[in-house]
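#data-curation
PF: Archiving a pair of folding outputs for the training set. Convention for this channel: one message per protein, sequence first, structure tokens after, nothing in between. First:
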Amino acid sequence: MDSLDRKILAELQQDGRLTVTELAARVQLSVSPCHRRLRDLERAGAIRGYRAVVDPAALGLDFSALVFATLRWEDPDTVTAFEGAVTAIPNVLQAQRLFGEPDYLLRVVATDLTAFQQLYDHELARLPGVQRLTSTLVMKHVVDDRPLPA
């Protein structure tokens, strides 16, 4: 990946709806080579997809929490079962496996505290292999969905 590819990625992170013509102009490249580079970046997996970034509040999801999960055992079956179950919960926006304790960090959204409490009791606490859950409520998003540095 060279500096031109990085410029293309930076521009697309700012505006994924750019046409190839607009993108080519922004990175100072003609359309055909820009299009070829774009397709190469997509095929290589550097660009994983295109989507709209939706404001959670527009969907009534004004409540956000970070949930730390510690598993009883970390054998492959438990890890696979836990990760599969977490993937099936739409309110979990991110799930990251960590080194050390806790084992996982989950970013969860809900409409309000009551909805979060129900999600916590009926889904999160029942995830396979969970020994302990610890939650902290998000007061404010200071940096959110920032583009990757180019």
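PF: Second:
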Amino acid sequence: MSPDCGSPETRFVADRMLGTLTRYLRFMGYDTLSANGFSPGNAQEDNLLLALAQDEHRILLTRDHELARRGNDRAVLVTEGDVLVQVQQLIDLGLIERRLLMSRCSLCNTVLREAGEDEIRSAGYAPRDKSGFAFLWCDRCRKLYWNGSHGQRLFERIQSGLEF
């Protein structure tokens, strides 16, 4: 993997074994597609991932040694199972920065926008005390996001990381 691949514009596609890493990368603001968005059971899935990485200039993230080998310089073999170690591996490779932007939907990768009052009210899971929060909305999933205690814990986990 060439070290100049890392920038805020770095985009990824991840295999099915990296669902948690995919969500972390999205919370961190990285455009990350997932094989979980494909129909299950497709025998051509590896070929689709490789083509997507090539055609859309994405870095393929995989736990599969053979798939990583086939991806050449467009693939990263993710070697560990713990998501924080996975994040640290990508930081060490210079592909990502330790940050939490909350700019993408963790479910579908859509760029979030500022939520309107009606959207905030319609979300039964929004906090009662809305003061001090910035609310974001996913138009595709119709999901409300805000940086509450869950976001703060996620930010702390990403910031503390696993510096070796």
